[in-house]
Amino acid sequence: MSVPVFNSVGEAMEATGANVSVIFVPAKFTKAAVVESVDAGIPLAVVITEGVPVKDTAEFYTYATQAGTTRLVGPNCPGLITPGQSNAGIIPSNITSSGRIGLVSKSGTLTYQMMFELRDIGFTTCVGIGGDPVIGTTHIDCLKAFEEDPETDAIVMIGEIGGDAEERAAAYIKDNVTKPVVGYVAGFTAPEGKTMGHAGAIVSGSSGTAEAKKEALEAAGVKVGKTPSQTADLMREIIAGMN
């Protein structure tokens, strides 16, 4: 079986009807690859590459936003999956099933764990948004999509230390989300001032701590687990109450 080779994203779209570009190229080439995808008008570009300079990400994010044709997921992410229907990225397809939960997560590893722990209930869609300081699709974008999706009954949101994305998501949940949300924030034992895993996971002083994020989420009515497994149990209780 021969595999077709295309010289550009636009050529591939024209020949195959492709509507997703999954970008695995090394960090120094990532900006050019995203720009090429945006120029071709691809509706969705999933940027798996880690170690992309923040300046490059800010520039190609702005470029995509101004073009208005391409949604970005990532960089430094595992992608997204709708079990049994589509899989764009590197998420294992056999660790969960189709079901009633929407999942959005900064962490690829915790995405996989939550998918596996709740595999008996299953998921509508799971999105790993990445943990860099600048990313395309955010927690709020996914929360909005899950709120509007009639097949999604409840939402799991996984965050981590650093930045204020989880606090902003909490405010959005309070004002706009009617479906039950459970959360987990990685990094309760992280030492101050030290980057933990993702480039965006760094705490300075009292800003961006796991405890502050947990308090903001709980104030918005989100049940927050102390561990990933406890978070899965909280979701299991919610789903059981719906049946």
Question: Helix segment count?
Answer: 8
Any idea what the radius of gyration is? 18 Å
Structural class: alpha/beta
What is the N-to-C succession of helices and strands?
HEHEHEEEEHEHEHEHEH
The total of beta strands comes to: 10
Helical content band: 25-40%
Low-confidence residue ranges: 201-206
Strand content: 15-25%
- Report on the biggest sheet: 7 strands, mixed
Instruction: Tell me the strand order in the biggest sheet.
Output: 5-4-7-6-8-9-10
Shape annotation: globular
Mean pLDDT equals 92
Distance between the termini: 48 Å
Summarize the structure.
The protein is of the alpha/beta class. It is 38% helix and 20% strand. The protein is globular, with a radius of gyration of 18 Å.
